[in-house]
Structure formats: structure tokens, C-alpha cells
Amino acid sequence: MKNKWRILFHLPGYPQRKQSKIIVACMAVHNFIRESKISDREFDSCDQDENYVPLHAQSSNANATDERDSAVMNQFRDWVADGLWSLK
Fold it and tell me: What does the pLDDT average to over 36-62?
């Protein structure tokens, strides 16, 4: 899970209450993606290889489709995160 949700590597820097909320949020997003069957290349790569580390920036040879797909998924993740924060 730490490879998929990189923020989990740095939890000790946060107060315990915030750490709990971050873990719950990661699991909620994980379950949402699973249940909605939305395809995400990085998510699928983490599932297939436990040592896979998602890249923060795309390589310079990425094509326009990959960039567009990435932008759509980033927008979707932001929408899910906003929804989770509004529940608190």
C-alpha cells in the first residue's frame, strides 16, 4: 500500500489524529477505485508489481493521449478528495 499511496511513507511527521485520517482516506479512495472499476495505469501497475514506484512526472516521450488520460484522472482524484473532505 505504501508504494501505491506514497503519502503513507511520511506519516510520522503528522500528528496521530491526522495520520489516522490520511490512512482512512487512502483506503476509501482505494476501495472507490476498485468498486467503480475505473482504469488507472499507475494503480494497475502497483497491483501487478509490489515493487513498482509511481513516477511523479511523466517522461518527455509521453504521448498526448497519456497526458490527457493523466489529466482526467488527476481531476477525478481531486473530485474524490474534495468529496471525502466535505464529509468530515
Answer: 70
